[in-house]
Amino acid sequence: MKPRIAVDRLQPGVFISLDELRWLDHPFLLNRFRLSDEEQIRVLRSLGLDTVEWDPERSTAEPLPEEQAAEVEVDFSASVIDSMLDIKRSRTERVRAQREGLARCERLFEQEATGVGEILRDLGGRPNEAYSRAKSTVGRLVGGLLNAESVAVHLVNLKVKEPGPAHHAMNVVVLSLLLGKAAQLAEEEMRWLGLGAMFHDLGKQDVPARVLRNPQRPPAEEQFYQAHVGYGIKHAAAINDLPVAVKNIIACHHERWDGQGFPNRLAGTKIPRLARIAAIANRYDNLCNPFDLRQAKTPAEALAAMFKQENSRYDPELLQLFIKSIGVYPPGSFVALSDGSIGLVVESNSDDLLHPLIMLYDPGVPRGEALLLDLRETDSTIEAVISPAKLPVEVVEYLAPRGRIDYYVEGAR
């Protein structure tokens, strides 16, 4: 527990905590903050507080000595507090709008993922009808990104316990298009990329689940697994007029920049560029969302593994672009803030990757009402990315109850 001091000993620069109060019971933006002026101290007195917790390590000034703590004539100016409350009410309204925006993205992701699942199931019996629906789905996503000045990447918190291949396909589509936009692909290329990303794992329906789920496949099973690429091309052959670029994504999304991939051991620029993009998105999602979620990496860990341990596998220019596109702190990252709070990144924006939208952990607030903090509006900063394994279970379950990381992207003008 932090030490407490009398409010009369406070001065600007002292870092205080109001955790004993509910967020709505005071006019300040945060429960923990560094005092910036005397006006804030007068407001604390007006709230009837005699003492508050303070954090010596986060303070830039010491409290006043007890002998210097003079009696201060308190100005209970209602206008000052009312002004602060008005600002807080305005912020509360913005939080409500942000929460509704995240809920909208979750609904859209689930709708699109459900549609993708139906498309993948129908490709066997009605391939051309399913392909037509696939083009419409990709067209909607591409249309929202092409002319956007900035792109917001949202963390999706779905309620399903056992997401199927459609959720993986949807993530690969979203992440591929995000990278495709950063690579300044033309509209037609973006559409081909989205379709190829949606169909990249078509052949896995012909591979037994025990093989797909086995991370330590013996040689015979590995050969069976690798055959999913050929099975996918076989299924895609039933689609009339499927562009070669889409077929190449299905055929080459497991090729590697260093020539050690499969099935043809292509290397470098011999691998079609759209397939190189889909390969990065596919690997990132597989690292974040493996079959066994106990083996899942955090977004930061996944990016670090791809950049430091697996960088020979990917087009280096595209990998750098992907890391820049997904964000310095990708949605799904657990972070420690400079005020001592723990939070989860739920949205990043291409305009300002260092200041994402954070969901804060507060056991006194129901998760459905958790505070959303836009770092662009505060002095708080991210001090570190934290592995959930190092956090108490109750914190992880509060911030990320599902353990999966799914994404939706929206463009803004």
In short:
Strands 5, 6, 7, 8, 9, 10 and 11 form a seven-stranded antiparallel β-sheet that branches. Strands 1-4-2-3 form a four-stranded antiparallel β-sheet, with no helix packed on it.
Please tag this protein with its features:
single chain, 413 residues, 4-stranded antiparallel sheet, 13 helices, 11 strands, elongated
Describe this structure in words.
With 413 residues, this protein is an alpha+beta fold. Helices cover 44% and strands 12% of the residues. It has helices at residues 38-46, 78-122, 127-146, 165-182, 187-199, 209-212, 219-226, 228-236, 244-252, 273-288, 299-309, 316-326, 393-399; strands spanning 4-6, 15-17, 32-34, 51-54, 150-156, 334-337, 342-349, 357-360, 372-374, 382-386, 406-412. Strands 5, 6, 7, 8, 9, 10 and 11 form a seven-stranded antiparallel β-sheet that branches. A hairpin with a 4-residue loop joins strand 6 (334-337) and strand 7 (342-349). Helix 4 (165-182) crosses helix 10 and helix 5 (187-199) packs across helix 9. The radius of gyration is 25 Å and the shape is elongated. The model has no long low-confidence stretch (mean pLDDT 88).
